[in-house]
Amino acid sequence: MAHGTRIRRFLTSAPVALVLCLASTTIAAAEPSFPGQTWEMPGASPPEGWSAEHLQIAENRVETTRPTGVFVVQDGRVVAAWGEVARTVNVRSIRKSVLSALLGIGVAESRIDLNRTLGELRIDDNEPRLTLAEKEATIRQLLMSRSGIYHGAIYDGYGLAPRPARGSHAPGAFWYYNEWDFNALGTIYTRLTGDSIFEAFDRRIARPTGMEDYQADRDGRLVYDSVSQHPAYVMLLSARDLARLGLLYLNDGAWAGTQILASSWVKESTKRWSDTAVGLGYGYMWWEIPSGRGLAGGGFAALGLGGQALAVIPSKRLVVAQTADRSDSPAEITASHFFELLRLIVAASPKE
Q1: 199: helix, coil or strand?
Q2: Could you tell me which residues are beta bridge partners of residue 91?
Q3: At a CB cut-off of 8 Å and minimum separation 6, what does 91 contact?
Q4: What is the pLDDT of residues 85-124, one digit of tens each?
Q5: What is the DSSP letter of 247?
Q6: What are residue 72's phi and psi, to 5 degrees?
Q7: Of 291, 289, 292, 317, which is closest to residue 303 (Cα–Cα)?
Q8: Is the pLDDT at 322 greater than 50, yes or no?
Q9: What are the DSSP calls for 95-147, one per residue?
Q10: In this structure, is the dihedral angle defined by the CA atoms of residues 260, 34, 302 and 187, taken in order, positive or negative?
Q11: In terms of DSSP H, where are the helices of 29-93?
């Protein structure tokens, strides 16, 4: 199927079912722990219960694929840090999961109603303009990548399936990984809140969680093109800052006693709302890793082209962040490389 084949070029060079053979054992629940102003780095020996031998295998894998940085955290404590974990990198489609978090804050504050339609919001685009039927799409349907709007978009065509024909699917009826939806959500967020995405992320998430490397005026920019009115919102993040976002989600939106995201939003946005051709589910701009593939209880991930990845494995209390600048690696890193590394990391983690 063309749709599935093209998506695989973006997500993985091997079937996800083969790369998600992660260990199914769990660890006992522990009191959540959070880093202070900076992470406390691990010593020469791995944390208690972790296998030094298996961690070395994982590190060898990193040395082969050469991503920019990999940061491994369990219950808020650093297990391993490989590469340049403080260097900010264009995390590509992880930007969408970041915006999902900001939209969740807007929903909690009653500034955003997911059931409002594009027509009500007066959202349109360049010629050929949106039809009346397309304007019936809701914010929620855009979050699910189910708008049914197949207008040209900035960053469209990066290894994804060809756009369906305009009007071929009604809003809500069909899942298609749609850059138009993602970019239009940036416009909607800014219009409804009056906030810049980059400054809002700094104020509402980065600073409250203590991110060390992100600077809103340096690490965020809008990209415009005549194909669409709705710009893409490019973000640069470091692996260790991504890990703080993952830790926030691991703890249901809470950080050191402060509820930054509603726990209901974390659950709603990371659950499977749509099936995809590659074995992962899709939520509100987050990917769902299903259970039943060697991973007890499943998990969720933010994924970007070229090996950008943030995975949260609740059953292991584990967060793994990876950044990958194309200039650092001898070959393009795919999601399958990341999932293979994730499998090795889980194999090294403490057993029940």
Answers
A1: helix
A2: none
A3: 235, 236, 237, 242, 304, 308, 323
A4: 999 999 999 999 999 999 999 999 999 999 999 999 999 9
A5: H
A6: -115, 125
A7: 289
A8: yes
A9: HHHHHHHHHHHHHHTTS--TT-BHHHHT---SSSPPPTTGGG-BHHHHHTT--
A10: positive
A11: 52-65
